[in-house]
Write a structure and sequence with these properties.
The chain is built from seven helices and five strands. Strands 1-2-3-4-5 form a five-stranded parallel beta sheet. Helix 6 links the parallel strand 4 and strand 5. Helix 1 packs across helix 3 and helix 4 packs parallel to helix 5.
Length: 146
């Protein structure tokens, strides 16, 4: 029996066409995020991000600060949102590279604040609210205020 090798073909033109179609469907003034976490789900994060941005994506979504750093080091200047919970070690990269960190626990704020002071920079944050899945995010008004 002959071994059949699987092959992955990434059609960047199709990615650009899909982004343009989405932009057309949502109308003017609406910004779209291209989620490229996990190496763009195995499709190649940098090349997919470039294709999506060239076709109208406004910002990018990743799971970790390391993924955001890779995008920055590849020349991406578009806003990048880190979906995953921040670790103490990831705060430095988030601030240094101007990545927007989803904040889902109160202890994440001091980690970012320390890095802001250390680097003399501002942090970009996105308050993650748990809307029912129970994975990450603040779950009450008290948690949000904290």
């Amino acid at each position: 029996m002959e071994y059949r090798k699987n092959e992955r073909v990434v059609d960047l033109d199709a990615i650009r066409d899909n982004m343009r179609a989405l932009k057309g469907a949502v109308g003017p003034g609406i910004r779209l995020m291209a989620v490229v976490k996990a190496d763009a789900y195995g499709h190649g994060m940098v090349k997919v991000a470039k294709a999506a941005l060239s076709a109208g994506a406004s910002f990018l979504g990743v799971a970790t600060p390391e993924e955001g750093v890779l995008l920055r080091e590849s020349g991406m200047v578009a806003p990048v949102l880190i979906f995953g919970a921040l670790s103490r070690g990831g705060a430095g990269a988030a601030v240094e590279y101007g990545l927007t960190q989803a904040v889902c626990r109160p202890e994440m704020i001091p980690w970012l604040a320390r890095e802001c002071d250390r680097q003399n920079k501002d942090a970009f944050v996105h308050l993650k609210i748990d809307t029912g899945m129970g994975r990450i995010g603040v779950r009450s008004l008290d948690e949000a205020h904290a």
